[in-house]
Write a structure and sequence with these properties.
Blueprint lengths: L1 E5 L4 E6 L4 H20 L2 H17 L1 H12 L3 H26 L2 E3 L4 E9 L2 E5 L7 H12 L3 E5 L5 H13 L7 E3 L4 H9 L3 E7 L2 H13 L4 E4 L5 E4 L5 H13 L11 E5 L3 H13 L19 H16 L3 E4 L14 E4 L16 E7 L2 H9 L3 E2 L3 E3 L3 H10 L6 E2 L14 E2 L2 E2 L4 H6 L2 E9 L1
Parallel strand pairs: 5-6, 5-8, 6-7, 8-9, 10-11, 10-16, 11-14, 13-14, 16-17
Antiparallel strand pairs: 1-2, 3-4, 4-20, 9-19, 12-13, 15-18
Helix pairs in contact: 2-4, 3-4, 3-6, 4-5, 9-10
Length: 454
């Protein structure tokens, strides 16, 4: 059962049954036929459909934002920004897709070589609740522009967001069955991955989900993109603009109530500026307002569920038991919603679990580091390798961090972000493959060589 649940009030809004097996079979058969037709559509038709989808999302941004706030508790202003970002992504691929997909001539002494970029077929997507529109659209736009069809299995807590996205695609003029939403249970999910009519798989989610879907994709010999967890470092060196770095650390850690794979979960600060940074950071955190996601003044909404809140509380308690010092917050908030206080921990000793695990909620971990060597060592000590944010004005330090941080993305003097033009993804237990930009487009195409001998 898919359950639409308001984490701010504890109210169940609606429930949706899992799809009947016959409906799943029909969706795959229809999607397979639709993929063949969409493959044959010219690029102008695909471009027009993506542009219309952007128009629909922008026009109804407030309606979509309310749905996001209702189902997963995102503050309404952030929810609206998420919808607008989806529209921007659709327009980026509409504008750049034709050039990205253009055949490439490869010089070769033995004849003429051409590399084509052709759609794979039906892409099966397993998506999470934390950015219920963006996570879908960031892969959907390039997949559709490349000529693929898509079947979506969204998180069981955001069924109305999933249905609304499917409806927007239909309204935008996508051909029937090119983009379908299904409410699937785990057994159905595995059968869909194994079905030969599914050409590729993509997942954004937890490590456990990634291992399960990755294993199923491997058994079926399907290409797969996995975007999993993260414990991203934000590193502040003495040459940084301290005010900007503090503001970025607060935003980077507490955006989306700390429920983002690229949140700045670990904040590493050089010892020469640690006391000043710590004081300013705590003062800024104290000003954050947690409350009703529909209140425009709210900075942090609830966590996604009472279970998520309780798991986070247990992690914090364990970290304190293992030697961390609690500087702010540290408790679930009273009331019916799944709220947790903005929390700050410091002094985590070597061996503490919180140094290497992911905390998916509003908990910042502060580390005082002696020099650049210690900053890099601590940054790299986790099993994750998604993003990193480094604040320094020293060119030599930039080169060192750029060379030695073990991750998929490093941003200097900026928070880690996802942008339509830039590759997004990680290494180690943060997954493999890339989304967005040219790289996201190439994830779901057949790079086909056509060679004519001289």
């Amino acid at each position: 059962m898919y359950r639409s649940f308001n984490p701010a009030t504890g109210e169940t809004i609606a429930e949706f049954p899992f799809a009947e097996d016959a409906a799943v079979e029909a969706a795959m058969a229809n999607g397979h036929r639709a993929a063949a037709r969409w493959r044959a559509a010219d690029l102008a038709e695909r471009r027009t459909a993506l542009t219309r989808l952007a128009d629909c999302l922008e026009r109804d941004a407030d309606t979509h934002a309310r749905l996001i706030a209702l189902e997963m508790g995102k503050p309404i202003a952030s929810a609206r920004a998420e919808v607008i970002k989806c529209a921007t992504n659709c327009r980026w691929y509409a504008d750049h897709g034709e050039a990205l997909l253009a055949p490439e001539a490869v010089p070769h002494p033995g004849g003429e070589a051409e590399v084509r970029h052709e759609p794979l077929g039906v892409v099966f997507a397993v998506m999470p609740w934390n950015f219920p529109y963006w996570q879908v659209v960031r892969f959907l736009a390039p997949a559709l522009m490349a000529g693929n069809a898509v079947i979506l299995k969204h998180a069981s807590s955001t069924p109305q967001c999933a249905a609304a996205l499917e409806a927007a695609g239909i309204e935008a003029g996508l051909p029937e069955h090119v983009f379908q939403n299904l409410y699937l249970d785990r057994a159905q999910l595995e059968r869909v991955i194994a079905d030969p009519r599914i050409a590729a798989v993509t997942l954004t989610g937890s490590e456990g989900a990634g291992m399960s879907v990755g294993a199923a994709s491997g058994r079926a010999l399907k290409p797969c993109v996995l975007e999993l967890g993260g414990s991203d470092p934000l590193i502040v060196m003495p040459s940084a603009d301290l005010g900007r770095a503090v503001a970025a650390a607060v935003t980077g850690r507490y955006q989306n109530s700390g429920q983002s794979c690229v949140c700045a979960k670990r904040i590493l600060v050089h010892r020469d500026i640690y006391p000043a940074f710590r004081q300013a950071f705590l003062a800024a955190v104290a000003k954050l307002r947690t409350g009703d996601p529909f209140d425009s003044a709210t900075d942090l909404g609830p966590l996604s569920s009472p279970q998520a809140r309780d798991e986070l509380a247990a992690q914090v308690a364990r970290a304190i038991d293992q030697g961390a010092s609690l500087l702010a917050g540290g408790s679930a908030m009273a009331g019916p919603g799944a709220y947790y206080e903005p929390t700050v921990l410091e002094g985590l000793p070597e061996g503490a679990e919180a140094r290497v695990e992911e905390m998916f909620g509003p908990v910042a971990l502060l580390f005082e580091v002696a020099d650049i060597d210690e900053a890099i060592r601590v940054a790299n000590e986790t099993p994750f390798g998604l993003g990193s944010s480094v604040w320094t004005e020293d060119g030599g330090e930039r080169r060192r961090f750029a060379d030695d941080l073990a991750c998929g993305m490093t941003f200097f003097n900026a928070n880690t972000v996802s942008d339509p033009a830039l590759p997004f993804g990680g290494i180690k237990r943060s997954g493999f493959g890339r989304e967005l930009g040219r790289w996201g487009m190439m994830a779901f195409v057949n790079v086909r060589l056509v060679f004519s001998a001289a």
